[in-house]
Design a protein that fits this description.
Keywords: Signal. It comes from Pseudolysinimonas kribbensis. This is DUF3060 domain-containing protein. The chain is mainly β. It has 2 domains: 33 residues, no CATH class; 122 residues, no CATH class. Helix content is 13%, strand content 43%. It is built from 2 helices and 13 strands; from the N terminus they run H-H-E-E-E-E-E-E-E-E-E-E-E-E-E. The N and C termini lie far apart (74 Å).
């Protein structure tokens, strides 16, 4: 009996050490294919070591983010967010496209904003030429003026410090107007 306990003790310690550093499903051999694709080049680090924030994939035409997390993006011709639970602080973006739920984007400037999802929040530091929302409970907050756009969904809010132009509202309980 004591021999079995002595043989099991190192095994229990090994399993405990492995699961402390990785999700339990991955450590036990399952769920590895369920992990989202990341665009970060950071290697895994031991607990307690500072980790640099993940980076978006930056191409000539766009900055694209496909995995949950917090990101800082440079100036981009287009900022594209594909996924859920993504937070981005960005410079200037020609276009901001959100495809997913519960995302947050804070950009210095954006010529246009397109949302396809639920519960997304976008704050743009300057004027926004046009917007398009397909979804529910999304918010766009322009610090300048928002030109024109379209809302297909419910319970969305569009507001701008310098006013909002013509917005075609094809939903219910949407709020469109200048900030108080």
């Amino acid at each position: 009996m004591i021999r079995r306990v002595l043989l099991l003790a190192p095994l229990v310690l090994l399993v405990g050490a492995l699961t402390a550093c990785t999700p339990l499903s991955t450590a036990l051999g399952g769920g590895a294919s369920e992990r989202p694709e990341t665009t970060s080049s950071a290697a895994p680090r031991p607990s307690g070591t500072p980790v640099s924030p993940p980076r978006p994939t930056v191409g000539a035409a766009s900055c694209t983010i496909n995995a949950p997390g917090a990101y800082q993006a440079p100036d981009c011709p287009a900022l594209i967010v594909n996924g859920d639970g993504i937070t981005v602080t960005a410079g200037r973006a020609g276009a901001i496209e959100i495809h997913g739920d519960r995302n947050q984007v804070l950009a210095d400037a954006g010529a246009s904003v397109q949302i396809e999802g639920q519960d997304d929040q976008i704050v743009v530091g300057g004027d926004v030429g046009g917007i398009e929302i397909h979804g529910d409970r999304n918010e766009i907050d322009g610090q300048g003026r928002i030109g024109s756009g379209r809302i297909v969904g419910n319970d969305n809010a569009v507001k701008a410090a310098a006013g909002v132009g013509r917005i075609d509202d094809e939903g219910a309980r949407n709020s469109v107007g200048a900030q108080p």
